[in-house]
Amino acid sequence: MKLLTFTVNGRTRIGELVGDTVYALAWQDNMRQMVRRGIVANRAYERFPLESVKVEAPLMPSKIICIGLNYADHAKETGAELPKAPVIFAKFPSAIIAHGDLIKWKSEITSKVDWEAELVVVIGKKAKDVSEDDALNYVFGYTIGNDISARDLQKTIDVQWTRGKSLDTFCPLGPVIVTRDEIENPQALKVTCKVNDHVMQDGTTADMIFSVKQLVSYCSQMFTLLPGDLIMTGTPAGVGAGRKPARFLKDGDTVTVSIEGIGDLTNQCVVSDK
Length: 274
Ligand code: ZN
Fold this sequence. Notes:
Layout: E1 2-8, E2 11-18, E3 21-25, H1 31-37, E4 43-49, E5 54-55, E6 64-68, H2 72-78, E7 87-91, E8 96-97, E9 102-106, E10 113-114, E11 117-123, H3 132-135, E12 139-146, E13 149-150, H4 151-157, H5 162-166, E14 171-172, E15 177-179, E16 190-195, E17 198-204, H6 212-220, E18 230-232, E19 254-259, E20 263-272
Parallel strand pairs: 6-18, 8-14, 9-20
Antiparallel strand pairs: 1-2, 1-5, 1-15, 2-3, 3-4, 6-7, 10-13, 11-12, 11-18, 12-15, 16-17, 16-19, 19-20
């Protein structure tokens, strides 16, 4: 099932996407609450063509846990060593925007804005100290994320990554959450990123160093995972900073992250002086 949060006629609701039709779900306006209850509601009577609704970010989590350097070819392009355990950092939920929203930044804050195509795990129920074998039972579903990163803040100005990863609008998410039952194997999905018409990243989740079930289990040893929490699972090779010469996002660029079985997440960039 493909679930989305959408606004139509001034009202925000939850729906099921089938082809290009959105079927509203009965009495639902908050995806995180629905995930917490663990039951996907029945369809209401209304349905809408997808192009007639405003797609919203699927949900607002209590936390976004990000995994760095989780693909060997990406670790190599950044000059980092292969991690022996998952590299964990955070992104503020206030950075989340929807499919179709603008990625915006000020040129006086950063001039090295980069893309990172990522499979995102949506946690379904409270998870603490879960085993790898049991970990996927705590997953509600999967969505798409673009871990937009200000490389100058991340690498040269700050000594850690929080600011460069958390600027407002730096977490495009969605457009849909695909429920776990529809993704037979999360380690066999094609992940790509296009900037305008150029394919920049062309990878597969088969190349993750730490798999989804390892990441859920590992994170749950340290942080209680709550319904709706997100784990961004890292990005394959082909980010702008790793290219020769380096290529960063510019005003007017359009970035599309695509993941097999989930869909396409597209956002345009707007740069302002102040
Ligand atoms: Zn990332």
